[in-house]
Amino acid sequence: MSLTLDATAPEARHGALRGLSNLLYRKPTLYLSLLLVPPLLWFGAIYLGSLLTLLWQGFYTFDDFTMTVTPSLTWANFAALFTPANFDIIQRTVLMAVAVSIASAALAFPIAYYMARYTSGKTKAFFYIAVMLPMWASYIVKAYAWTLLLAKGGVAMWFVQHLGLEPLLNLLLSVPGVGGNTLSTSNLGRFLVFVYIWLPFMILPIQASLERLPPSLLQASADLGAQPRQTFMQVILPLSVPGIAAGSIFTFSLTLGDFIVPSLVGPPGYFIGGMVYAQQGAIGNMPMAAAFTLVPIVLIAVYLSIVKRLGAFDAL
Amino acid sequence: MYKTALLSGLATALLASGSLQAAEALKEVGKGEGQLDIVAWPGYIERGESDKAYDWVSKFEQDTGCKVNVKTAATSDEMVSLMAKGGYDLVTASGDASLRLIYGKRVQPIDPKLIPNWKNLDPRLHDAPWYTVDGKTYGTPYQWGPNLLMYSTKVFPTAPDSWKAVFEAENLPDGKPNKGRVQAYDGPIYIADAALYLKATQPALGISDPYQLDEKQYAAVLDLLRKQHALIHRYWHDTTVQMSDFKNEGVAASSAWPYQANALKAEGQPIATVFPKEGVTGWADTTMLHVDAKHPNCAYKWMDWSLQAKVQGDVAAWFGSLPAVPQGCKASELLGAEGCKTNGFDQFDKIAFWKTPQAEGGKFVPYSRWTQDYIAIMGGR
């Protein structure tokens, strides 16, 4: 913009400044690199650099006797990820992340659909605020509040008891892998909290992708004699897959990295985040912590390559 | 060649000056530097902001001119990592952190002769292994306390006298099994609690120190903890969550600190604590001096100040702990005449105090393995 102005009003610039602008005009590569170098430095040196330094520490050796780290390189830490106890942690975290993503998508879709197709003006604004409102409260407060809601003497149990659903809940809690001693120490309880906390991150991308769906396509589908069910399965759902995939990037990666909800609600046993914290903090085993850090990076890289094929990046 | 010689000479000089600096200890306590930075447990250093009556900082600041800045840390691990970062003068380290700080060269030895109030110290705490290494004293004891067996008086009409209620499957006095109604501590140091129980119940194992276990003893302890996993409602580390579990979740018994028990009793909950016959583990905290402390004079003044009877009694009243100075039991109105007895002052000999397990050249299982194995056990392996 300013370059074109320079050309039409040469008397406005003088001397060195003029020379500089001429130079930049003649050498667009220089101009571009001047613009790009600071952010690239930031991204490369500070972000990627520190990440790679961290991962590099995964090759260092941790001495059990002296509890010190020595910079002799080894694969042992990465191999240790596959010992049964550590693999349990990875498996536990990934299964939860997948379950939370699926449930969030199932819950979010109707809400997003209603927001996109049946609201406008003030109602739409209301829905936007209602979806985002929980995010205004501190995450820690919400997690703690859930420990009380799910407690044996808490609100959730009160409803269950008054609806006469206690035998059903006990049956549910006795299912291995889902249940636990009580609602607040069961996987089910942890799952509920995760779904609650990450749901807005799923609703918004789906809503955005449904907004973009042209109504003419639905009319065409009806004109051609499709049942509403057929329209949904063959037109709406395939076209909203990018939105669902985009939302699932959030729910999947956020669940994968979280360590506060697992420490407050649910059965004992670490998630990846808690394990990294324990290794780094409790015993100063930085190499093992670094090795564990690689796990979510790899998992999310794999996940992103899958959702890229589903077109998630077009819906972000 | 010349260059290399010059470089190595320079390097040696640098190293020498570095070690000189580190070895330079205070000969006498001089004028304060005007500032003091302390890493402490929440509630350990109070200046009357939470409750006007509990203030042992303002007077110190007036007397010495050392402005006290407190950085609270929630876990021993956080303390170790804060001290590793540096920039602090003192830390109130528990026994599961103190040896890590000493061997990690984060703290320096102090000279008790420079601390007039050292004479007040409880003789039982003299030269304790969690702050004395190779005859050197690393800091001044601050407070101590036991990990008690806390139980619901509704479930136990008479006090349980053994940790059996949390370690082995059995029916509690109300006729229902203890499965899902007991808790264990969420930290590898809890392995010592199990070792202490086995020390009493399986003398054949020959456990003498629950923090120094050989492979055979260690295997037996892990086996007990694996069986315990099936009984556990939750592994606790957050006092608020544990108190809520006793109130709302029907938890009947668990290891706990006097802090939770006192708070629950104050709310009128049916809660009591007991020293089981097997003995208990406990913590003893030490005020330790950072190796690069910028305000050593103020730090020494604080260590001296902290060993006053009244300060000790007030801290104990606020935190539910016990003073490291016996007169502290009488010197504080806040603590009251019975405060020390309630918190367990006379039970010192029954307490196996927390210390970081050391391998000692492979004789014993080191702490890093405690951590790995306890993580696996909590995960159900």
Order of helices and strands of chain A: HHHEEHHHHHHHHHHHH
| CATH-scheme architecture of the largest domain in chain B | 3-Layer(aba) Sandwich
Pick out the low-confidence regions of chain A. 1-10
In total, the number of strands of chain A is 2
Would you count the extended β strands of chain B for me?
Answer: 15
CATH topology of the largest domain in chain A: MetI-like fold
What would your notes on this structure say?
The complex is a heterodimer of chains A (316) and B (381). Chain A is mainly α and 316 residues long. Chain A folds into 2 domains: 48 residues, no CATH class; 239 residues, MetI-like (MetI-like fold, Orthogonal Bundle). Chain A is built from 15 helices and 2 strands. In chain A, strands 1-2 form a two-stranded antiparallel sheet. The two termini of chain A are 29 Å apart. Chain B contains 14 helices and 15 strands. In chain B, a hairpin with a 2-residue loop joins strand 5 and strand 6. Chain B is globular. Chain B starts with a helix and ends with a helix. Chains A and B meet through helix 5, helix 7 and helix 14 of A and helix 3, strand 10, helix 8 and helix 14 of B.
Topology:
The complex is a heterodimer of chains A (316) and B (381).
Chain A: H1 2-8, H2 15-26, H3 28-57, E1 61-63, E2 68-70, H4 76-80, H5 84-118, H6 121-136, H7 139-149, H8 155-162, H9 166-173, H10 187-211, H11 215-223, H12 228-257, H13 260-264, H14 272-282, H15 286-309
Antiparallel strand pairs in A: 1-2
Chain B: H1 2-23, E1 35-40, H2 58-64, E2 67-72, H3 76-85, E3 90-93, H4 95-103, E4 107-108, E5 132-133, E6 136-137, E7 140-146, E8 148-152, H5 164-167, E9 182-185, H6 191-201, H7 215-229, E10 232-236, H8 239-248, E11 253-256, H9 258-266, E12 271-274, E13 280-290, H10 296-306, H11 309-319, E14 322-323, H12 328-331, H13 339-343, E15 351-353, H14 367-378
Parallel strand pairs in B: 1-2, 1-3, 9-10, 9-11, 13-15
Antiparallel strand pairs in B: 3-13, 4-13, 5-6, 7-13, 7-14, 8-11, 8-12
Helix pairs in contact in B: 3-4, 6-7, 7-14, 8-9
